[in-house]
Amino acid sequence: MFRPEGIYPALLTPFDEDHRINETELRRIVEFCIQKGLDGLFPVSSVGEGLHMSFEEKCRCMDIVMDQVAGRIPVTPGVVASTPDESARLARHAGSLGCPAVVGTPPYYFKPGVAMVERFFETIVEKGDVPLILYNIPLFTQPLDYDMVKRLSRYEYVVGMKDSSGSMVDFLHFMDKIAIAGEDISLLTGREETLLPCLVMGAKGSMTAMAGIFPEIMVGIYDAWKRGDMDEARTLQKSMLVLVRTMFAVPFPVGFKLGLELRGFNMGPPLMPLAHGDAYQLSVVRSRLQMLMRPLLENYGEKLFEPNV
Predict the structure, then answer these.
(1) Domain span at residue 145?
(2) I need a labelling partner for 16 at 20 to 30 A (CA). Which of 26, 103, 183, 226 fits?
(3) Which residues make Cβ contacts (< 8 Å) with residue 161, sequence separation at least 6?
(4) Does 128 reside within a domain?
């Protein structure tokens, strides 16, 4: 059965002025990711504002990405919803397109207990008819429990887990509980800052926003680690830390969209409008990203996109 492995970008979603998916730009982003050597794609993601999309737009995003990919790399869409039935409907749509797995997020807004979150995932497995990658994202939803992950890992259709806690403590305990269960699902980090340490401890890869903005760095870390060049892997891991902090200096995910705009993509407006007072901070972050990204891109023979130059 399919197991996610390697470097996956959590795809950002470009929108037009009517807050509809900009299909032309999304296809360009998908092609950019494939040409940069990424191992798979994670559309309808948190950074891609999947939470704000209607059911129809989530399905449309999957349709566009799968059509553009045309079988070249695996696509594992998010099935984010506040009810398991809607998540299962999204999973069935993804399965009908040929997606090998989907990424399931715990229910949001209401904070159910561990047993209810576990049942939420079980319902997706039972009704979704496609393998599931668990998604731990405590920044926005109820954190997953170690023993719950242990129990869920025993399901044949649970094939992986994305841990965006950013905590090596949690990552290691999840890994240990899965091993105690006698299972071997793919554990991926959802925080770009921990890619190398997680790989060292047995992670199979990552699903992060930075992989879609600066794939050269993320793929570079993974390739350096695979060939045993730890000095290169450490250098690359450290090179992106200031970038990530800068992108988080404005409301999520606007800073990440700025980063992709500097690669030449028209991301359009965020679905959640910014406050008037955010305009100055936005300009500061854009200038800072230009300063940080220009020399990094030059190392790879790439140029920063600067429309005003």
Answers:
(1) 6-229
(2) 103
(3) 133, 134, 135, 136, 149, 153, 174, 178, 185, 186, 187, 188
(4) yes
